[in-house]
Write a structure and sequence with these properties.
CATH topology of the largest domain in chain B: ABC transporter involved in vitamin B12 uptake, BtuC
Structural class of chain A: alpha/beta
Oligomer: heterodimer
Number of helices of chain A: 9
Number of strands of chain B: 4
CATH superfamily of the largest domain in chain A: P-loop containing nucleotide triphosphate hydrolases
CATH class of the largest domain in chain B: Mainly Alpha
Radius of gyration of chain B: 24 Å
Number of domains of chain B: 2
Strand order of the largest sheet of chain A: 6-7-8-3-9-10
Largest sheet of chain B: 2 strands, antiparallel
Number of helices of chain B: 18
Chain lengths: 256, 410
């Protein structure tokens, strides 16, 4: 059963068409990677799904509900969480507050000004537990902005998964990390997305082929292939457009 | 129990102050402080906690105050019948209603957009207050008499000290509620939206709605402060909702320290004292207030509260006392330098006539006075610069972690 579907989604900025009629089906429970050269529109696609941008045309459905014209907070409430390519946390709040904020809505606390956070024993215990999972429990009271880079990336993940969303979208989760940091991050991603659906954009092909059940290749705003890792590796169109050179040259870098 | 200690201390201070200082002037000042504390705390809900810079917060204070005076008039003419102890609530509700109306369109964005809208609304309401004379009373304002209400347990509020204790109760309750607000989901998300509105949206919160809630709560407590003003002065004018009042509350919150809950309380106390005491000694106190604000922004960006909190590490390590002497060594010349600058400003201001400055009589026509002043200024400036090094090293030593002190210089 597909949990997320894109039907003919396009997005233009002025005259420039960044996303050109993308069709994509993400099955519940799968780990799906989106790859493609720089400027292919991977981050734009993420922004369209999560509600930061609205598509120029096409439909996006999440659990059979159309979400393309909904604001990000409504999409998030439906159970779609995302992380960002550039660390996007609450820098002057403590590490603990960061993940707890991520949990508030799902906890049903909403905009309440009648509940005291200090009294939410179960919520606070869960936030501490999540910090242990992402190995930041000894930094709980630190201002998030003072963490080391890899720790901030881990917190970025923590904030994204805090709500317990079913669909988690990660935008280059290991970009800029050292090899050992990236390894730790990948095993963390495996652990925290257990039993959930994962969609990720990643440049590091080793990680992509290691983690993903299925891979979609985005080139100039179009999906040219969507298949199992083995089939993608063998696909001549993909090799021509992307893999042959990208693997050999640069695995990091930026995306439009 | 330690959690409640600051609150018990706060309550004792509020109730005990008039016992220590019971002159008419002191009670007047305490009443002003009470009003200022609630107003400044409400302002910090916007700027410090919610990241919304408002140049028009006096609107909610003033509208609440005007309605409170009208409510007092209605009580006097027996149009309505309730105790005047509830007047601040009337002010609060009007502040809330005004904030709901304005917030519905102004909280869409923070930053410059919000600041400009707040400035515009402030000017608009201040201008309207001179146009709609029947409600605002024109330049004379409106006045009432608080003593016509039904007595509250036999108290008829003839005296300022009675109003003070009533205000103290409202101040305490307002402070508690505003503090509790910071501990709720709405209050915490206000911090999160201040830090990063985009991310807040991706964890399920509409940044606009979060700002709106803070804005309305802030408007309510500003209105409560306006109600306290009405009770204390029994009149209110356009001046109380214009840009000057908006600017003053910004100064209070900023000088006290935006990042700390207690900051605006400190700011309100310091500025009220300056306003009432300094204005007795010099006509230039507004200038000094401006200088103090600039110095605070430059050197104490976290305000007085931030300055106090800077000493937490040294205090926890039990080394605060080692800082007393270095502070004195640098502080005394610093104060003398500041004093000579002030004396020079006063001499220019008094042009030609002699006046008392602290313990001396100064005369700007006397060249010897200028010479003496310049010498003291230069000498103290030199001493201050020279002694800065010892203060810096004492500071570093006091803040050093335990393990490195062993090999420190002896």
């Amino acid at each position: 059963m597909s949990i997320l579907s894109l039907h003919n989604v396009s997005k233009s900025f002025g005259k420039t068409e960044i996303i050109r009629g993308v069709n994509l089906d993400i099955q519940a429970g799968e780990r799906h990677a989106i790859i493609g050269p720089n400027g292919a529109g991977k981050s734009t696609l993420f922004h369209l799904i999560s509600g930061k941008y609205q598509p120029s045309s096409g439909r996006i459905t999440f659990r059979d509900q159309e979400i393309q014209n909904h604001p990000p907070y409504e999409i998030a409430r439906l159970g779609l969480a995302r992380s960002f390519q550039v660390t996007n946390i609450f820098p002057r709040l403590s590490v603990f507050e960061n993940v707890r904020c991520g949990m508030l809505w799902k906890q049903g606390l909403g905009y309440s000004f009648r509940h005291l956070l200090g009294r939410q024993t179960e919520l606070n215990a869960r936030a501490m537990h999540l910090l242990e999972e992402i190995s930041l429990s000894d930094r709980a009271d630190f201002p998030a902005g003072e963490l080391a880079y890899a720790q901030q990336r881990a917190l970025e993940l923590g904030v994204a998964i805090a709500s317990g969303a079913d669909l988690i979208m990660l935008d280059e989760p290991v970009a800029g990390m050292s090899l050992s940091e990236a390894e730790a991050a990948v095993s963390l991603i495996r652990k925290i997305t257990e039993g959930k659906t994962l969609v990720m954009v990643e440049h590091d092909m080793n990680i992509v082929f290691d983690v993903a059940d299925r891979i979609s290749v985005l080139v100039y705003g179009e999906i040219i292939a969507s298949d199992s890792p083995q089939a993608i590796r063998a696909n001549p169109k993909v090799q021509e457009a992307y893999l042959g050179e990208a693997i050999l040259t640069d695995a990091g870098g930026d995306d439009a | 129990m330690g959690k409640f200690a600051p609150w018990v201390g706060y309550l004792i201070a509020l109730l005990g102050l008039p016992q220590l200082f019971d002159s008419v002037l002191a009670i007047t000042i305490f009443n002003q402080m009470a009003i200022a504390i609630v107003f400044a705390l409400s302002y910090n809900m916007l700027l410090g906690q919610g990241g919304m810079l408002s140049f028009g917060h006096a609107v909610y204070f003033g509208l609440g105050g005007f309605m409170a005076v009208h409510a007092l008039i209605m009580i006097e003419f027996e149009t309505v019948y309730f105790s005047i102890t509830l007047i601040p609530l009337v002010g609060g509700l009007i502040g809330l209603i005004a904030a709901i109306f304005v917030g519905s369109f102004s909280t869409h964005k923070a930053g410059t957009v919000f600041a400009m809208i707040s400035l515009g609304i402030g000017e608009l309401v201040a201008a309207s207050s001179l146009i709609f004379v029947s409600f605002f009373g024109g330049e004379a304002g409106v006045s009432a008499d608080r003593t016509f209400g039904p007595p509250f347990f036999g108290i008829e509020f003839f005296q300022d000290v009675e109003i003070y204790y009533l205000s103290a109760g409202w101040v305490f309750a307002s402070t508690v509620f505003m503090y509790l607000f910071t501990q709720t989901p709405a209050g915490r998300m206000a911090n999160a939206v201040r830090e990063n509105p985009e991310r807040a949206e991706f964890i399920g919160y509409s940044a606009r709605r979060v700002r709106f809630i803070s804005f309305c709560s802030s408007g309510f407590f500003a209105g409560v402060a306006g109600g306290l003003f009405a009770l204390n002065y029994e009149f209110i004018t356009e001046e109380n909702l214009n840009a000057v009042t908006s600017g003053r509350v910004l100064l209070m919150a900023y000088i006290g320290g935006l990042g700390y809950f207690i900051g605006p309380i400190i700011g309100a106390v310091v500025l009220t004292l300056m306003n009432s005491l300094l204005s007795n000694y010099t006509e230039l106190w507004m200038l000094y207030l401006g200088i103090m604000f600039v110095l605070t922004v430059l050197f104490l960006p976290r305000g007085f509260a931030g300055f106090i909190m800077m000493h937490q590490t040294a205090w926890l390590r039990g080394r605060l006392s080692s800082l007393v002497l270095p502070y004195l060594i640098t502080g005394i010349p610093a104060i003398m330098f500041g004093g000579s600058i002030l004396a020079a400003i006063e001499m220019l201001h008094h042009g030609g006539e002699s006046f008392r400055f602290l313990f001396v009589t100064l005369d700007s026509g006397n060249a010897l006075h200028w010479f003496a002043l310049t010498s003291v200024g230069a000498a103290s400036h030199f001493a201050c610069r020279r002694s800065l090094g010892q203060l810096t090293s004492a500071w570093e030593e006091a803040n050093q972690s335990e393990d490195t002190t062993e090999r420190g210089p002896s």
